[in-house]
Design brief:
alpha+beta; Arc Repressor Mutant, subunit A; 9 strands
Length: 291
């Protein structure tokens, strides 16, 4: 959901027109309410909604978390953009993930936000940051700046972007010690049915079937089609346009990032890794770790 830039206001008399204030192209969490209280609002929606999962008003939620309904409302755009809240008229209905989070919070408040990890992996900020972190750790300032570039957010939105990192940290998508950001245990989507991904297609359109006639493409319904892994999508999005110049050094960097992602996503029965070498105009990949 894009946020429109504020238009220049009209002027009267000899006043000079005010310059339009640039706003991010991505929806960011509010900085006017603390992070923990924002999570409290999310749980408040689950509590007010009840077992029947009905849509509830800002006033309903505010009465539970004991804050003004207007304060509840400033949290809504970010939650709606992520799909954590489904807007129904003047009310909002919490998603299944919110209900799962609220229930888990009763048993383990510190780990409960991991129930939201799937939503954050699919978010614009998760899909943008995870591939970066699989390549190398980032300083907090680097991570914030990278997200600012993705959202085209001016400097005054730094606090909002830092709250984005807080959401990712709470869900276990990233780790952060306050100065350094690294990949978290929940950055990887769990394998379906407890097993490997096998021949699962990354585009979610066909499922290869091994048989007597070899590999056959079997159509699957949209409900059956798996979503492309954020790590793979991030790699594909970094590929240059077909026919453009792509220097070998840049290709090597991309392949190194791909290798790091594959190490995170897949298991191997071999201990040896791979080595990418660039000599003159030859880029080669060899089995075995570099000596």
């Amino acid at each position: 959901m894009a946020i429109e830039s504020q238009e220049t206001t009209g002027v009267t008399g000899g006043e000079m027109p005010k310059a339009a204030r640039a706003k991010p192209v991505k929806v960011l969490p509010t900085e006017r309410l603390g992070f923990e209280k924002q999570l409290g609002v999310l749980r408040g929606y689950a509590a007010a909604s009840g077992a029947e999962r009905k849509a509830v008003s800002n006033k309903d939620v505010g009465a539970i978390v004991q804050i003004h309904e207007n304060t509840v409302s400033i949290c809504n755009p970010f939650f709606q953009d992520l799909g954590l809240l489904i807007k129904e008229g003047m009310k909002n209905r919490p998603s299944d993930e919110v209900a799962d989070y609220a229930q888990a919070f009763e048993w383990d408040s510190e780990k409960a936000a991991s129930k939201l990890a799937g939503v954050f992996r699919k978010s614009w900020f998760g899909a943008a940051l995870i591939p970066k972190l699989t390549f190398r750790p980032l300083s907090k300032d680097e991570a914030t700046t990278f997200l600012a570039n993705e959202a085209k957010a001016p400097k005054e939105y730094k606090a909002n972007l830092e709250i984005v990192l807080e959401y990712l940290r709470a869900a276990g998508v990233i780790n952060s010690d306050g100065s350094t950001v690294t990949i978290g245990p929940n950055a990887k989507e769990p394998n379906e049915n407890g097993g490997g991904q096998g021949n699962r297609p990354i585009d979610g359109t066909v499922a290869p079937n091994a048989g007597a006639g070899g590999m056959q493409a079997t159509p699957v319904t949209p409900e059956q089609a798996p979503r492309m892994e954020p790590l793979i999508r991030g790699l594909i999005e970094k590929l240059p346009d077909t026919g453009s110049v792509w220097d070998l050094a840049d290709r090597a960097k991309w392949l190194n990032a791909a290798a790091s992602n594959f190490d995170l996503m897949y298991k191997t029965s071999e201990n040896a890794g791979i080595t990418l070498t660039l000599e003159a105009s030859t880029l080669s990949i060899k089995k075995g770790a570099q000596q």
